[in-house]
Design a protein that fits this description.
By secondary structure, this protein is an alpha/beta fold. The protein is built from 34 helices and 24 strands. Helices cover 45% and strands 17% of the residues.
């Protein structure tokens, strides 16, 4: 299908209009659109007649014949040229030929376009550039200049088309892709809809779909962003509004506009208020509405509605010609001068510009005169409503709000655009009925403005302690909206059943219980502490700490006793099903080794805490590390139940000393992870006193370690994994590429990204073919894993299928942008997508690391950005120990209470104790 200049003009306004015009669709009619078409044609005919009036017949060519031998032409001007090259076609209004300046130099050709308006837009310049592009294709050389003749004075504007040539070419490429599709593009309403002949059709379809673009002012970019989150309708958007308290630094600044709150107002059919909008009229309100000819900056009708105590007086000041503009301005000032304390109220910036220009054209009132203040302090009601008062209608236009409040216009199709048409009709015919239509329309606008002003005054003057009724509408304070908190975990949905099957197979419990179990030994599950059989110990006031007199350094039995040491501590005693408060005196018999010269027998954990017993310390650590209970809550609960007067600062000291105590444990975990054959890595954001930082997690099936970093730079993870020789399982973050080891990219991340691409490009058949092939391939691999486990002798057979898949996508010859990017991503990561097929025990997803990230995310929500960098590192040390215990099937509280630092030794002692109990 050829691209014509009419199609390009439609595309610059709206892709949907371009598609409909190209396929021969006819609109339902639009008075303004019909008038623009008529005026454009008449202006072009008149302009061509003026251009060719003084040119001899031999120097003027007309129609298609002028293009037969363009390079050898001798004419000066050619008009109505239908130029067609390749798939580009343009009906050029006129072409001016400038003879060559010397021998051997080509003549210059300048396309000319006629525009009837006095003011030009960027689209007009792009259309001239399109004419120049088509002409360039015909001539075989660049046409770098075009002309636009426009306005009542037939002014000429020269356009350098070279500067916008690239933009025009990009537009033609997008139009070609648009026209080659079988279905029209996604419908998006915009500001051009009021001028379009397809307005009624598009509006109806948008209402049927409840499209986001029904909300006036929402940008197409924002719609695409919402679509990427799964929000496609106004109703869906309405559920996303969350009332938030504004920071102190922004309280003096204007509130931003919330499209979600507008959608909520439409759904609930209630007026919603944000903050405390202030609006008070101190004086006599005078509602003004101005009608003018925009492209001439000519104002021909001033409507005033003076609101008295019980009635309103309407004034309509009419100007036949531009010379009468000063007269109606003077009459306007005279009326204001007779009003007591007038306050001008208008809607929008059109009247603000009018007042400013009138004062510039005809002079300001005398300095100090009352009217000087009145004209400079007019009230724009839209600025009061915007972002503060949300009426249950799709836009903040005066007509939409007034109609919502029950007001109606005599002419249901009346609009500002139609008033422009009516003014030109009256200018041509001087029909009094047309003038009457304009005056009535202006009068009704003033009355509607009065109604909206009174409603806003009632709303702002009311104290919203709850929902109230104003003008038959419920009024709700937005801060009182109860937010429905969404799930923090995203629900996966896909149009392809194979992708949903793969995603379901990646659940954590599934991996732990079915897949990982077959790649190694059966993981131990922690036993519930209250079901274990423990020997109950009597709570004594004085406890002699038992110790074997074996030197910890040389392992010799020592007979020389040292002095007795004691600590009186506030502690708790763990019973079988109880927890008791005790003040306990611990007595420690020390020994001295003559060979090594060291004194032992006084445990380190009792030396670092001088007031609190070790069981009390472990009880606190267990609550705010594993149970994720805030420290203040732990302190309040403990003080209330046990009567201790522990302060929050004491809990911070306990955490700091415990993190130092287990620093060696964390290093042991890291060493075992690096020496292993498999590591899962991931990172997430952390909040440090309002500043962003990052936490990296390294884990395998048995250990987890958390590492704090100020940036997301991969240097820290490269430093820790410098000696790692196993397989690294990660997401697609580029920082991992610099690590020299075999790597497996998380295929679940890839599946979700591909699914999002399909959602964003639902009509891209090439993309769907690629994703479907990949989904079926991965589905067969998951079936093998489910049956045989993560063993390469069973998974290696799929390597042939992988090669077949890559041959398929390389020979497809994809054309769409999304499909090309998809193929490039597969090729770029080819050696890292299917590594698990060549190794034993390597999973195809990174859920192990994501599971560990969730543990930190729960703790992060409790910390809530109140901790320093040092405090977060201490939390991470304790969390590393906690999660490692969970992964090894050990109870974190039991490990803490044991005082042991090495998790491996503690696990062995548990196994020996369990084996002894069984025997």
């Amino acid at each position: 299908m050829n691209i014509t200049s009419d199609i390009v003009a439609a595309y610059l306004k709206c892709p949907t209009k371009c598609f409909l015009r190209a396929h021969g669709e006819s609109g339902s009619g639009n008075e303004y659109a019909d008038w623009v078409q008529t005026e454009s044609k008449a202006y072009r005919v008149q302009g061509l007649r003026r251009m060719t009036a003084g040119i001899p017949t031999d120097d003027c060519a007309t129609g298609v014949g002028a293009t037969e031998n363009f390079k050898k032409a001798r004419w000066r001007v050619a008009v109505d040229l239908a130029v067609r090259m390749k798939n580009l076609e343009s009906q050029i209004h006129a072409v001016e030929r400038i003879p060559p300046e010397g021998w051997g130099k080509p003549a210059q050709f300048i396309p000319i376009r006629f525009i009837f308006t006095n003011k030009l837009s960027k689209d007009d310049k792009l259309l001239v550039a399109y004419d120049a592009l088509v002409l360039s294709e015909l001539l075989g050389r660049t046409v770098g200049l075009g002309k636009i003749i426009h306005g009542d004075d037939h002014s000429t504007l020269k356009v350098k088309t070279v500067g916008v040539r690239i933009r025009v070419i990009k537009h033609t490429e997008k139009i070609a892709a648009l026209l080659s599709a079988d279905d029209p593009p996604d419908l998006v309403l915009n500001r051009h809809c009021g001028e379009c002949e397809f307005r009624a059709r598009c509006r109806q379809k948008a209402v049927e779909k409840d499209a986001l673009s029904l909300l006036s002012g929402i940008a197409e970019k924002e719609c695409r962003k919402l679509n990427s989150k799964g929000i496609f309708t106004v109703t869906q958007l309405s559920y996303t509004f969350r009332p938030r308290r504004r920071p102190k630094r922004l309280r003096d600044k204007r509130e931003k506009y919330h499209h979600s709150l507008k959608a909520l107002a439409v759904r609930e059919k209630k007026i919603h208020i944000v903050g405390s909008p202030a609006f008070k009229v101190e004086g006599t309100p005078v509602y003004i509405d101005i009608e003018g000819v925009p492209d001439r900056d000519f104002y021909y009708l001033i409507g005033l509605r003076v609101h008295a105590t019980e009635s309103a007086v309407q004034h309509s000041l009419w100007a036949d010609e531009e010379d009468d503009e000063r007269s109606i301005w003077d009459r306007f000032l005279g009326i204001l001068d007779r009003v007591r304390d007038p306050v001008l109220i208008h809607y929008g910036s059109f009247e603000t510009t009018f007042l400013k220009r009138m004062r510039e054209r005809y002079g300001k009132p005398t300095e100090g005169a009352p009217l000087t203040h009145v004209l400079s302090s007019s009230v724009n009601l839209l600025s009061v409503i915007f972002a503060q008062i949300y009426f249950p209608c799709f836009s903040n236009g005066l007509k939409d709000i007034a109609r919502n409040l029950g007001f109606s216009w005599t002419d249901t199709e009346a609009s500002g655009l139609n008033s422009v048409v009516w003014r030109h009709q009256w200018q041509r015919t001087r029909d009094p009925r047309v003038k009457e239509m304009l005056v009535r329309y202006n009068t009704e606008d003033c009355a509607a403005l009065g109604l909206v002003t009174e409603t806003v005054s009632q709303i702002t003057g009311s104290r919203l302690g709850g929902e109230i009724e104003v003008a038959g509408r419920g009024v709700v304070q937005a801060d009182s909206v109860i937010a429905q908190k969404p799930s923090p975990w995203r629900k996966f949905a896909s149009p392809l059943p194979s992708l949903e099957h793969v995603n379901a197979a990646a659940h954590w419990d599934y991996q732990r219980n079915r897949v990982y179990a077959r790649s190694g030994g059966t993981p131990m599950r922690p036993r519930l502490p209250w079901l274990r059989q423990r020997k109950q110990r009597r709570a004594d006031k004085v406890i002699l700490w038992p110790i074997v007199p074996i030197c910890p350094q040389c392992s010799r039995r020592v007979r020389v006793k040292g002095p007795l040491r004691s600590r009186t501590l506030q502690d708790v005693v763990f019973g079988r099903f109880s927890l008791k408060r005790r003040f306990v005196t611990y007595v420690f018999q020390t020994y001295r080794c003559n060979k090594c010269g060291i004194v032992f027998g006084f445990p380190e954990r009792y030396r670092i805490y001088r007031k609190h017993g070790w069981d009390l310390v472990t009880y606190f650590l267990y609550q705010f590390v594993e149970l994720c209970i805030p420290q203040m809550t732990v302190v309040q609960s403990y003080n209330r139940l046990f009567g201790y007067g522990i302060h929050r600062s004491s809990l911070n000291n306990i955490k700091t000393k415990a993190a130092a105590y287990y620093a060696g444990t964390k290093q042991q975990i890291l060493d075992r992870i690096v020496r292993g054959s498999l590591i899962h890595a991931d990172e997430t954001r952390a909040n440090i006193k309002g500043k962003s930082a990052y936490v990296w997690v390294l884990t395998n099936l048995h250990e987890v370690i958390y590492i704090y970093a100020e940036t997301r730079d991969g240097e820290i993870v490269r430093r820790f994994l410098a000696d790692f020789n196993g397989v690294l399982v990660t997401d697609f973050y580029a920082a991992y590429d610099s690590i020299d080891c075999p790597q497996q990219r998380c295929l679940i991340h890839l599946v979700r990204d591909l699914n999002d691409e399909m959602m964003s490009n639902p009509f891209d058949k090439e993309l769907k073919q690629i994703v479907s092939a990949f989904g079926e391939l991965l589905k067969r691999m998951v079936a093998s894993v489910d049956r045989h486990g993560l063993k390469k002798r069973f998974l290696g057979k799929h390597l042939v299928e992988v090669d077949r898949f890559y041959r398929l996508i390389s020979h497809m010859g994809c054309q769409s942008e999304a499909a090309v990017k998809c193929v490039q991503r597969f090729e770029r990561n080819r050696d890292k997508l299917f590594t698990f097929l060549r190794f034993d025990g390597v999973p195809w997803n990174n859920n192990n690391a994501e599971h560990a990230i969730k543990a930190f995310a729960r703790l992060r929500d409790v910390i809530a950005g109140t901790s320093t960098a040092k405090g977060v590192e201490e939390y991470l040390t304790l969390l590393s120990v906690c999660q490692t215990c969970k992964y090894r099937g050990l109870d974190f509280l039991d490990f803490l209470r044991s005082g042991e630092k090495d998790i491996e030794i503690f696990a062995q002692s548990r196994r020996r104790r369990r084996a002894g109990g069984q025997s």
